[in-house]
């Protein structure tokens, strides 16, 4: 029987590329995000290949998260794979100049949102004693970089939650692992720099960054391993990148 995966942040970047690839593997998809028109377009595109449902909620909205997940029925009710991907950086400022709304957004979305979605889905996985959770962390959750402060803190939190989930869910046979990408060219920098496209483009100029499809391919690898194999924590960077701050240009 086909598995069902719920992907948060499926309207763009890594989440969208993952949906496109998992569809080719016949995995039923629950695509989540706030931009319904994008989710609808993706559903139309992938609906010919696999079964697709969309859920529109802001991961910050605790009730919205639980109501949306409770509304699922049929093949979408039982979720085998949860991909906690929704998230962004907001701003890039020294901590003394940080914007409080940016800090709230990053902690509420990247940390609390991931927890809300997980809490809404975990009871069914625990009940069935099966499931696979993939948390999208970041190299920013492994190494703090200048002005990264609160975004890095949110991704260090994802690292801790990933470890905590794996420990607490071990007795239920639920697989938990994180994928921690370096620089991936998506809408991430557009969001970080609040629509300043010039500044966003510069982040990915002069070297070959990762593509969202590269991360999707790793997620595909992770979810297609035999049950006894759990990829617990994986860091992946562009060959041009050696650390958060060392990127070889014109490689
Ligand atoms: P994108 O900006 O392309 O995608 C972000 C996704 O998150 C969108 O689908 C967006 O959907 C969703 N999202 C954002 N805020 C919310 C919210 N409040 N509620 C629900 N959904 C939300 O960025 P990426 O694909 O690059 O980012 C995906 C993940 O990868 C993030 O967790 C990011 O931190 C992580 N990452 C990214 C890296 C990069 O260099 N790009 C590197 C390392 C990690 P919508 O706006 O429709 O709600
Ligand atoms: C995204 C990668 O280096 O921009 O998590 O923080 S970075």
UniProtKB/TrEMBL annotation:
Keywords: Oxidoreductase. PROSITE patterns: ADH_SHORT. Signal peptide: none annotated. InterPro entries: NAD(P)-bd_dom_sf (IPR036291), Sc_DH/Rdtase_CS (IPR020904), SDR_fam (IPR002347). SUPFAM superfamilies: NAD(P)-binding Rossmann-fold domains. Pfam families: adh_short (PF00106). Gene3D superfamilies: NAD(P)-binding Rossmann-like Domain (3.40.50.720). It comes from the Bacteria. The keyword Oxidoreductase applies. Belongs to the short-chain dehydrogenases/reductases (SDR) family. This is SDR family NAD(P)-dependent oxidoreductase. The lineage of its organism: Bacteria, Pseudomonadati, Bacteroidota, Flavobacteriia, Flavobacteriales.
């Amino acid at each position: 029987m086909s598995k069902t995966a719920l992907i948060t942040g499926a309207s763009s970047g890594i989440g969208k590329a993952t949906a496109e690839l998992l569809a080719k593997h016949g995995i039923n998809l629950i695509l989540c995000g706030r931009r319904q028109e994008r989710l609808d377009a993706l559903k139309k595109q992938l609906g010919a290949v696999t079964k697709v449902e969309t859920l529109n909620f802001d991961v910050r909205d605790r009730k919205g998260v639980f109501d949306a997940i409770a509304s699922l029925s049929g093949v979408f009710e039982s979720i085998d794979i949860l991909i906690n991907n929704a998230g962004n950086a907001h701003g890039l400022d020294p901590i003394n100049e940080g914007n409080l709304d940016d800090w709230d957004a990053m902690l509420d979305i990247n940390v609390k949102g991931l927890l809300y979605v997980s809490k809404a889905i975990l009871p069914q996985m625990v009940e069935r004693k099966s499931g696979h959770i993939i948390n999208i962390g970041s190299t920013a959750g492994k190494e703090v970089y200048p002005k990264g402060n609160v975004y890095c803190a949110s991704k260090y939190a994802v690292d801790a939650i990933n470890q905590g989930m794996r420990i607490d869910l071990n007795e239920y046979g639920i697989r938990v692992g994180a994928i921690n990408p370096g620089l991936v060219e998506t809408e991430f920098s557009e969001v970080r720099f609040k629509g300043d496209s010039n500044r966003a483009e510069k982040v990915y100029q002069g070297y070959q960054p990762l593509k969202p499809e590269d991360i999707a391919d790793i997620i595909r690898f992770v979810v297609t391993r035999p049950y006894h194999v759990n990829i617990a924590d994986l860091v992946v960077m562009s060959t041009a990148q050696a650390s958060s701050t060392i990127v070889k240009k014109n490689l």
